[in-house]
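Email to the structure team, subject: Peptidase P60 model.

Hi all, the expression group asked for a predicted structure before they design truncation constructs. Nothing fancy, just the tokens so they can compare against earlier work. One-line instruction: predict Peptidase P60, return tokens.
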Amino acid sequence: MSRATGPDRRINPYRDDIAAAYLRGEVKAGRFVDGEDRQVKLPCVPLLQRPDADAPMDTQLLFGENFRAYEEKGGFAWGQSAHDDYVGYVDAKALAPHPYKPSHVVAALRTFVYPRADLKSRPATPLALNAKVKVVGAKGDFSEIERGGWVFTAHLAPVDAFVRDFVSVAEEHLGAPYLWGGRESTGVDCSGLVQASLERAGISSLRDTDMQEATLGERLPEPIDFTTLARGDLVFWKGHVGIMVDAERMIHASGFQMRVVVERLDIAMARISRVAGHVTTIRRLPRR
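Reply from the structure team: attached below.
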């Protein structure tokens, strides 16, 4: 976004009446505040465009992720995700004060928080891939986590332990339903699938497709030689992205099939071109 229109409001917390203190001198606002760090205490929380339960969802916040709240009013906190800088409104009741420092993340597609270290006890809370927890104890096959409950230890990984192949993480989502703004396996969109998969590989990613296209990896030369594509290449259209699983097939969260699918790139290109135009870029991440 040009300086004439100011920083991108999606990832810079400012409005006419209030802004983050770190934006002082860059934007105009009625007042500047430092904000307060809070932490998501529910499994998954929508980040909304407006302080209204019926407002469109831009993205989601997962259990254990931090959120810097700059304002709380009418039951909603307005602020910024510490995960990917996205700005929006969150139900204030979903946030806890005094965030803990996570020690582990959920490494399985989904898991549960149990009331006891017993797989036969009735689980109270589902957790998604990449949810953040702090392990405070262990018993048998389970880990006790901060704020109560037990998680199957094999479903967790230390925060600094990553997978090598992010495409394999995307493939675990095969068949997951499409959800605009979704970041986890009960509902995920195209850029959310890319972001979640890269996170498990230790690669930070912004949220929306245009942001990812501008920042991830290196752009392949044009005109694009589609015969040279490889596993892990990111294929971008205006408003859409997919991940190559090999030289010919792509996995993506498809709004046409309304689920995560693997299909031949040439077939997807022919269909998507009728809605979003032709492929805009191919981005290649560093090989690991």
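The chain has three domains: 19-96, 104-158, 166-284. The mean pLDDT is 96. Ping us if the truncation boundaries need rechecking.
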